[in-house]
Amino acid sequence: MRRFADLFQRLDRSTGTLEKRAALVRYFRDAPPRDAAWALWLLAGNKIGGPRAKLAGSRELRAWIAETSDTPEWLVDASYDQVGDLAETLALLLDDPADASEDIPLATWIEDILLPVANAPEGDRRAVVERAWRTLPFGERFLFNKLLTGSLRVGVSRGLVQQALAELSGVEIALIAQRMLGAWAPSADFLAGLLSPEPQPGDMASPYPFFLASPLEQLAEALGPLEDWLVEWKWDGIRLQLIRRSGDLALWSRGEERLDGRFPEIEAAAALLPRHAVIDGELLAWDAGDAPLPFTALQTRIQRLKPGARTLAQAPARVLAYDLLELDGTDLRDRPLTDRRAALAALLATLDDRRIALSPEIMADDWTHAAALREMARERGVEGLMLKRRSSPYQHGRRRGDWWKWKVDPMTIDAVLIYAQSGHGRRSTLHTDYTFGLWDGDALVPVAKAYSGLSDAEILQVDQWVRKHTRERFGPVRSVEPELVFELAFEAVNLSRRHKSGVAVRFPRILRWRTDKPASEADRLETLKALALPSAGG
Predict the structure, then answer these.
(1) Which range is the signal sequence, renumbered to this chain (predicted)?
(2) The dihedral of CA 23, 28, 29, 34: what is its sign?
């Protein structure tokens, strides 16, 4: 535990990427394999025991620390509000032990002490937690509390951890990333396989790390001749890799989740592929009129492990394929996009099933013509255009230069601030999470929540205003006088029976504070509804 606590503090205090990577390399080189495996699990963003393993809730921890430290509960809450991090607050409210405690390994703490009491009665869980609080010095106590609250948030990305492991082992970072996709357990055996230069049994069942496009923030003409670029629609679905290797068939989402069984029509079509392949594409809900359905239609299927006939009929699925990563066991990722796409087109031409189809190339005369086509995107139910350099290899992660997403300009509305809530971390003392409403008759109806888009100076101004114009308090939420107007941007809006307003907006964010506009002139709900598309399943 002590070694990992030292690493945590080094990572937390360092601002340099090279310094953080060096600290990671040293830790994984020197730590016992079981400890290193759990450290990797935690640094990758996972929680101990998964989402269903209860170690201690926030309310329990605050109540326990109040009694253990002889601190009034109101003072614990006030301290938490000031510090902004529950794990740090809990650590600060106790003195260090008089004598140095035994250095119990990280894996022992997790496997032999914490996991056995997960979901146990409160008394059993509390006894373990209080024992740690009384015996661990501050640095280890702080880390222990982080394990309880479920998130390290130490400013280290998964990619940086993978870079350190690649440097340590000599294994290519792309293979490290591939082996970490999907479900895995933190064990010494997994870590050994992860860092092994030899082929591993799981390699054949895993997807490749996805290549991600960057937002186009310059004039398209600056990219050079249009003939150097493949232009496609930017589909609004779920990024997916379809894998057919030997006897295995799998669907992997970009979120590292296997979707097997949820889209049986796609699996049936994939089984008809004449050759083994790994295909990258977009999973969409598709209507009988040969057009994409809104993303909300696809959402009705994501959590259904075994969809019934009605669900399959309401939101039939299709994969629009745009890249071929592997064919008959040969890795194609280093080949130019033009070669991969030609091989993909040839493969799909033999498939008599339109549920897996080639994403069409958009033909444009020049960049001006491409821009005009982009403006038609929303009418087609897509988000804009994708621009891919024809000579590009299939890379790992978000590498700028070869793949760009040229999205259509967002929709906007002017909405009224009606609720505000405190943020988290360094913004825990400020009201940074906002709920906005539109006029429906004489009433304001909530339509969106947003917490990004304002400058630090504007956040301070809004926070001061919220404190002076609070109407009511509901726990951490304040209702405020309906006076401030903000312009909100969003990608799409759909009719929805699940929302009080009757609509659901996608990716809302603040564009600007409309200090020039009174609340009475904010937009009306019918204006937003007029922009909406119906969604299958409501």
Answers:
(1) none
(2) positive
Could you tell me if 83 and 93 are in contact, meaning their C-beta atoms sit under 8 angstroms apart? no
What pLDDT is recorded for position 423?
Answer: 77
DSSP conformational letter for 363: P
CATH class of 211-407: alpha beta
pLDDT tens profile 413-458: 999 999 999 876 566 678 889 999 999 999 999 999 998 888 888 9
Which CATH number, 1.25.40.10, 2.130.10.10, 2.40.50.140, 3.40.50.300, labels domain 411-530? Answer: 2.40.50.140
Q: So where are the chain's domains?
A: 2-149, 211-407, 411-530
Q: Which helix (H) or strand (E) holds 506?
A: strand 503-506
**pLDDT score recorded for residue 534:** 54
Q: At what angle do helices 158-169 and 17-30 cross, to 10 degrees?
A: 60
State the angle between helix axes of 122-135 and 58-68 in degrees (0 to 180), rounded to the nearest 10.
Answer: 60
Residue that has been written with the tokens 């006088």 in this structure: 481
Torsion over CA: 23, 24, 29, 33 (sign): positive
Which two tokens mark 231? Answer: 């232009």
- Residue 171 CA to residue 348 CA, distance in Å, equals 33
Tell me if residue 513 falls in helix, strand or coil.
Answer: strand
DSSP label at residue 199: -
Integer Cα distance of 4 and 104 in angstroms: 11
**DSSP string for residues in 136-189:** S-HHHHHHHHHHHHT----S--HHHHHHHHHHHH---HHHHHHHTSS-----HH
Structure tokens at 440: 């429906």
- Cα 478 from Cα 515, distance rounded (Å): 21
Q: What are phi and psi of 504, to 5 degrees?
A: -130, 125
Reference 503, options 447, 437, 435; nearest CA is 447
Structure tokens at 348: 């799909």
> Which residues in the chain show pLDDT less than 50?
536-538
Residue range 2-149, CATH number: 1.10.3260.10
Q: What is the residue type of 204?
A: M
Tokens in use for 344?
């993909």
